[in-house]
């Protein structure tokens, strides 16, 4: 039991690290995009328009990212919980196809899958999964 708890704790730490690193990359990308847009605005707009457009903007990162790690951790926990809930639900939602026949028709759709997609089992069974991609 103790070993299982250690393994679960390690997986949770790795998942949180992954989410935090992804959040940091996203913030960095948004900051870069913001600087590029700022440069475009400074080159193409007049002084009055520039002040109106850029007046309320800040060049610093939000404190939740840079200083308040407790709040950042809470954001990650909420995201982590939402992702785990989504994955748990998604694991129940599946179809089974028959690869031994041409075009891999669906032979079974789980009740969660029919609930998620809104299709009745009769509309799904016998068709290829490509119909889920849309028109």
TrEMBL record:
Q: Which PROSITE patterns does the record cross-reference, listed alphabetically? A: BZIP (PS50217), PAS (PS50112)
Locate the coiled-coil region(s) and give their ranges: none
Q: Which residues form the BZIP domain?
A: 1-38
Establish whether keyword Flavoprotein is in the entry.
yes
The UniProt keywords, alphabetically, are:
Chromophore, Flavoprotein, FMN
Q: Which InterPro entries match?
A: bZIP, bZIP_sf, PAS, PAS-like_dom_sf
What GO MF terms are annotated?
DNA-binding transcription factor activity
One GO cellular component term, please give it.
nucleus
PAS domain: residues covered = 79-135
Name by which UniProt lists this protein: PAS domain-containing protein
